[in-house]
Amino acid sequence: MAEGELPAVLILDIGGTHGVLEDLAALLKKHFHLITMKEFLGNKEEMRKKIQSVFVFECRPTIDRELLESLPNLKVIGNSGVGVDHLDLKMISSFGVKVTNTPHAVADSTADIGMALMLASGRRLVEGNVLNFLG
């Protein structure tokens, strides 16, 4: 990586059904050079040595042995979610690659929804709303 050049991060895509949200991509672009999987596969020889990180968004791209073998300078896989069950941590670490995630990113939201569901259930809110709607 040349001086002043941003570190390259592999992502599946920007926008669309499975790509990184456009607002999130704009934030990432301030700190990283984003390379989509399509760009990577279209020019693997040039791109493979530039990529130092993979950003996994909604379990994509899939991290498998073939991908890890094709990225000799890969240092870290950043997972945008809480869990890492979809990642083979033992295999990834055998390549000397670290894995990160965001363990507390949705803790408050999850607690809020849990409390709302308990209150709604205890007060039979959904049943009352259906009866009110039908009545």
TrEMBL record:
Species of origin reads Peucedramus taeniatus
Q: Which UniProt keywords apply?
A: Oxidoreductase
Provide the D-isomer specific 2-hydroxyacid dehydrogenase catalytic domain boundaries.
Answer: 22-113
Q: What is this protein called?
A: HPPR reductase
Tell me the GO molecular function terms: glyoxylate reductase (NADPH) activity; hydroxypyruvate reductase [NAD(P)H] activity; NAD binding
Please, which domain of life does this record's source organism belong to?
Eukaryota
- What does UniProt give as GO cellular component? cytosol
Q: Which Pfam families match?
A: 2-Hacid_dh
